[in-house]
From TrEMBL:
The keyword DNA-binding does not apply. One of its GO terms (cellular component) is cytosolic large ribosomal subunit. Residues 143-158 have a biased composition (Polar residues). Belongs to the eukaryotic ribosomal protein eL19 family. GO terms for biological process: translation. This is 60S ribosomal protein L19-1. Pfam families: Ribosomal_L19e, Ribosomal_L19e_C.
């Protein structure tokens, strides 16, 4: 085992080591303990394992450690596709409900179509408003109500 940093030379015996110039003399110095080959260094992976475990928990992933753009780390295309799937499911549910109630307004039908997917809140809010209007009793129109009130007041005056 030779190489830089792999052999220890006795600092006190520097002159004697310097004077020896044959293999036989070198073997004698090794036997005496003036030249020692150092043991091989252990290349442990414990630090790497510890770092990998920390990374899996989400450590060391702040802004300074980001490699790659925001789009590369979490593509917006995936979010768009997820959102579209949610909206299509909602629109299909609304279409099934509309088949049960035939009197659904046409603007809600247009909102529920897959080609015109708007936000989830818009889809549901339009439906909720329409359902509230159905549940409330029909109030008399203002013109008809005022004429009935006027006729009733004339009768009471006589």
């Amino acid at each position: 085992m030779c190489g830089r940093g792999k052999v220890w030379l006795d600092p006190n015996e520097g002159n004697e080591i310097f004077m020896d110039n044959s293999h036989q003399n070198m073997r004698k110095l090794v036997k005496d303990g003036f030249i020692i080959s150092k043991p091989t260094k252990i290349h442990s992976r414990s630090h790497a394992r510890r770092m990998k475990e920390a990374n899996s928990k989400g450590h060391h992933s702040g802004y300074d450690n980001n490699k790659g753009t925001r789009e590369a780390r979490l593509p917006t295309k995936g979010n768009v596709i997820k959102n579209k799937c949610v909206l299509t499911k909602i629109s299909i549910r609304q279409k099934l409900r509309r088949l049960e109630r035939k009197s659904c307004p046409s603007n809600l039908i247009l909102r529920g179509q897959r080609t015109r997917l708007e936000g989830k809140e818009i889809l549901l809010s339009g439906r909720n408003v329409w359902l509230r209007e159905l549940e409330q009793p029909a109030a008399p129109t203002s013109v008809a109500a005022s004429s009935q009130l006027a006729q009733g007041s004339k009768k009471s005056n006589k």
